[in-house]
């Protein structure tokens, strides 16, 4: 997983929902020492260094679950795991090793679960598009093997906007369309917009910092199938761009700013696998459920729990604004107090 931040909240949701639905599982969660392997991983073929979070969850009749969650040895395995990722098309495999996320700049949020140590499992390697991969997690102490098999999501293709687009306009009350072709094995898509600018203190104008702000402009766009090349489209409100700048860029009368000339704005399209889509759908469906209508928690890990999937991203960059858009950033209703200059 190449994400830079990890949350104990998702793991907590899995454990809570698992306990509520325990009668439908084959695990006895109150058996002393009984463990459930929990896996979270998103593989990206554009990465060469990959990370997967593997933890354990269980309840003990003689201990409080919340107290156990704070103990790192209650949620992390020792050295008894053998973790492999096998290319099912070639039978070649990678062996994953333990890594400390804290030393890699991948901090884990604090919460109910212990966040130190921050154990991840990592490997170096290039993943091949259109190949299927199986993750296996073997506990050599118990003999239990948790597995999950996925296909690697291929990149979608952005049709509009595209790289090096000039005189791009954000001035209008109407929407514009984002168009793209889906990637093979991709099911769900998010679109992020990034605005690039420079900033300096008015008192020291020669000391310039280069900054950017980003926001999600479209979320949860779903493809009909996993074959790829499906034409997809979504509308983006131009006025939302200026509202987001007002929210994301802090008011500071001591600073001046200038929108980047060549790479004013970037559009980043993220694609996620079918497993990720199903997990989000089931997780959202849990909201507001009563104890009499608990749905099974989604997992694609056999002999365990969790979500193992793939993702990727493409972007349109080096897009420059037209003069009217530059003017609106400087003197427009939402952004006039942010001190942008020509």
Topology:
Elements (H helix, E strand, L loop, with lengths): L7 H13 L15 E8 L5 E9 L7 H5 L2 H4 L5 E7 L5 E8 L18 E6 L7 E8 L5 E7 L5 E4 L14 E7 L4 E16 L2 E19 L8 E7 H11 L6 E5 L5 E9 H12 L18 E16 L3 H9 L11
Parallel strand pairs: 1-15
Antiparallel strand pairs: 1-2, 2-5, 3-4, 3-6, 4-5, 6-7, 8-9, 9-12, 10-11, 10-13, 10-14, 14-15
Order of helices and strands: HEEHHEEEEEEEEEEHEEHEH
Range of helix content = 10-25%
Low-confidence stretches: 1-31, 64-70, 110-114, 288-295
Q: Which percent range describes the beta-strand content?
A: 35-45%
Number of strands: 15
Task: Work out the helix count.
Answer: 6
Class by helix and strand content? alpha+beta
Bulk shape: elongated
Radius of gyration: 23 Å
Count of the domains: 2
Mean pLDDT: 84
Largest sheet: 12 strands, mixed
Report how far the terminal alpha carbons are from each other. 41 Å
Structure description:
It is a single chain. The protein has 342 residues and is of the alpha+beta class. It folds into 2 domains: 8-152, no CATH class; 157-270 and 315-338. 16% of the residues lie in helices and 40% in strands. The chain has helices at residues 8-20, 65-69, 72-75, 238-248, 274-285, 323-331, and strands at 36-43, 49-57, 81-87, 93-100, 119-124, 132-139, 145-151, 157-160, 175-181, 186-201, 204-222, 231-237, 255-259, 265-273, 304-319. The strands form 2 sheets. Strands 1, 2, 3, 4, 5, 6, 7, 10, 11, 13, 14 and 15 form a 12-stranded mixed beta sheet that branches. Strands 8-9-12 form a 3-stranded antiparallel beta sheet. It is elongated, with a radius of gyration of 23 Å. The model is unreliable at 1-31, 64-70, 110-114 and 288-295 (pLDDT under 50).
